[in-house]
Every structure is written in C-alpha cells, then in structure tokens.
C-alpha cells in the first residue's frame, strides 16, 4: 500500500484509484443572526439566549417578534434550570431593532416566516424556517406546561448546535 492509498485513496475493482470525499467541514458561521417569532416572548428570546451560550461572541445575535408580546415567566423558569437568563430582555418587534441587517434570519413561527420573506425581497439575506411549537398553547398542570417549555428549550438547543456545528454543554 502506498502512502497515498493509506491517506484515503481506495482502489476500485478495476484498479482505478478513487479519492474518498473529505469529511465535511463545520458550517460557516454567519456574522449576524436574527431569531424571529410572533411576539418575542417565548421562542425567539429562548433561541437568542441559547445561541449566545453556544456560539462565539463574534456572532451578533438578536431576537424580535412580528409584534411585541409580554415577558413569559415560564421562559425565565426553564432557562434558569440550565443556568441561563434573559436578563433585562423585554419583548420587542422588528421595528424596534437597533440593527436591521442580518446574514441569517431564523423564523420560528409561520407568521414570522412570512414577514421575513416579505422583508428580504429587496435584501440578500438567508432565511431559514424552523417550525417550533408555541408552548403557551399547552393546557394542564404547571408541571405539564413547564414540560412543554423544556421541550422547546431542548429542541432549540439541539437545532442550534446541529445547524452551527457547536457542541451542546454536558447535561447537569
């Protein structure tokens, strides 16, 4: 076996050398990301906080809603369980953003996706739709509602990690 063969070349049945594809490199990180949902009170602020934890500080991350809602105490509770906080975040709309140019807009609700597509008609911005359950529609006991919020938290963390090639912190 030659050094080249040992480094990844393989001989097919006809004796021809074929190069195995190189392992895929991690996805290139955008310089700025906007997480967008309906009211910026549950899904998009959760995604923003999780992304800030998982991505390098060089990536500008923000969140907004199609319209502003009210801060949801269940979000604070489930983020606190994993050592994260919204801090002084108050829900706000896209119109209230400090910066309106993003490399990537991740939409988490159908209404937000339609709004993002309208917004980006005249801009070259990548838009991705990540359908995400609105946990506020779940009825039941407090623990059942919290479980729905935890599911959203975990699915967003997994999706962000997978999309941007970052490792999830170990479960505590």
From TrEMBL:
Alphabetical GO biological process terms: response to arsenic-containing substance
Pfam family, one: LMWPc
Lipid metabolism is among the record's keywords: no
Domain of life according to the entry: Bacteria
Disordered: annotated span: 1-30
Keywords: Arsenical resistance
Gene3D superfamilies assigned: 3.40.50.2300
Record domain Phosphotyrosine protein phosphatase I: where: 31-166
SUPFAM superfamilies, per database record: Phosphotyrosine protein phosphatases I (SSF52788)
Protein name in the entry: Putative arsenate reductase (Phosphatase) protein
Organism of derivation: Nitratireductor basaltis
């Amino acid at each position: 076996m030659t050094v080249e063969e040992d480094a990844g070349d393989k001989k097919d049945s006809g004796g021809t050398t074929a190069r195995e594809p190189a392992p895929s490199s991690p996805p290139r990180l955008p310089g700025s990301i906007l997480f967008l949902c309906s009211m910026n009170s549950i899904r998009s602020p959760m995604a923003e906080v999780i992304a800030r934890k998982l991505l390098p500080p060089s990536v500008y991350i923000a969140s907004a809603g199609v319209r502003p809602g009210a801060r949801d105490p269940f979000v604070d509770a489930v983020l606190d369980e994993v050592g994260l906080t919204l801090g002084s975040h108050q829900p706000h709309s896209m119109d209230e953003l400090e910066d309106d140019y993003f490399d990537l807009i991740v939409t988490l609700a159908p209404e937000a996706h339609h709004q993002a597509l309208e917004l980006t008609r005249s801009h070259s911005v990548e838009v991705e739709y990540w359908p995400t359950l609105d946990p506020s529609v779940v009825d039941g006991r407090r623990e059942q509602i919290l479980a729905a919020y935890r599911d959203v938290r975990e699915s967003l963390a997994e999706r962000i990690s997978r999309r941007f090639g970052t490792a999830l912190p170990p479960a505590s």
